[in-house]
Design goal:
Helix content is 35%, strand content 14%. The chain has 159 residues and is of the alpha+beta class. Helix 2 crosses helix 3.
């Protein structure tokens, strides 16, 4: 399994950065000043925490920072999709696919189906519409793998 990453500047990660990364994976409370609450837990101040999160994102250490919404629980839909993309077109096709706001989690894999991404939309019909639009724009088939059953694995990566 490979994740296609943009080249980012190299930074040094210290103990506080590691504690921030590990702590953020447990979620943030919905309180008036959520960063202040987390900063208090970690023994730093709110501005320092925010600056470090911004630095980790800018350097590519954190590839995404934000809420995770369950589209189905909110009345929407999502679907795992895959494409077989010629290696010499991978970057260009990734740019086309990623330009769609419905696309998340786009990864390159060592497989005939080498591009995998998630579509999250307001309706099931929007899944099909977005997939067909991507097919039209790229000239490549978008295979859809709808969820049959949900499993929560609690994935976390220790920094």
């Amino acid at each position: 399994m490979r994740t296609r990453m943009r080249t980012q500047p190299t930074i040094t990660i210290d103990d506080l950065d590691r504690r921030i990364i590990n702590r953020l994976q447990d979620g943030i409370q919905l309180v008036e000043r959520p960063f202040k609450a987390v900063a208090n837990e970690l023994g730093c101040d709110e501005n320092q925490l925010i600056a470090r999160i911004e630095r980790l994102c800018a350097a590519g250490v954190l590839t995404r920072f934000g809420p995770f919404f369950d589209a189905e629980a909110m009345g929407g839909a999502f679907c795992l999709c895959a494409m077989a993309v010629p290696a010499d077109r991978f970057g260009a096709v990734a740019d086309i696919v990623n330009a769609h706001p419905e696309v998340a989690h786009n990864y390159e894999r060592d497989h005939a189906l080498n591009m995998w991404f998630v579509l999250a939309t307001e309706t099931l019909a929007d899944i099909d519409r977005t997939a067909k639009t991507i097919e039209s724009e790229t000239g490549l088939d978008v295979l859809q793998f709808p969820k049959l059953e949900e499993f929560f694995i609690g994935f976390k990566v220790a920094a």
